[in-house]
Design brief:
5 strands, single chain, two-stranded parallel sheet, 3-stranded antiparallel sheet, 104 residues, alpha+beta
């Protein structure tokens, strides 16, 4: 599924384009049977879900590259609420894989 207000159809196989608010799409998905909802590389979708307190787990990979610009996922640090570090791993070239679980 791709959330987009500009695409009319998806150029990828087995993909549905949805033009609805993020939180509404998540509510629809939660109402169906299925597994976890995973969001990959979409700061705008993740920000909307964080603002609505709809995120249970954050899996972040930090790369030690300084680019000097670009959009920030967390404008003022981690989202409000409590988060617990569930796992961490360091890669060979200084990358960090961090997983945080929302404490409810």
């Amino acid at each position: 599924m791709v959330l987009s207000s500009t695409l009319g159809e998806a150029p990828w196989e087995r993909t549905t384009v949805v033009d609805k608010p993020t939180t509404e799409v998540v509510a629809d998905l939660r109402a169906t049977e299925g597994g976890d909802i995973l969001v990959l590389s979409s700061a705008s979708v993740i920000k909307a879900l964080l603002a609505a307190d709809e995120v249970d787990r954050l899996a972040l990979t930090i790369f030690p590259v300084f680019l000097g610009g670009g959009p920030r996922l967390f404008d003022d640090g981690l989202p409000s609420g409590q988060w617990a570090l569930a796992s961490q791993a360091a890669g060979e070239r200084g990358t960090l894989a961090l997983v945080y679980d929302r404490v409810r």
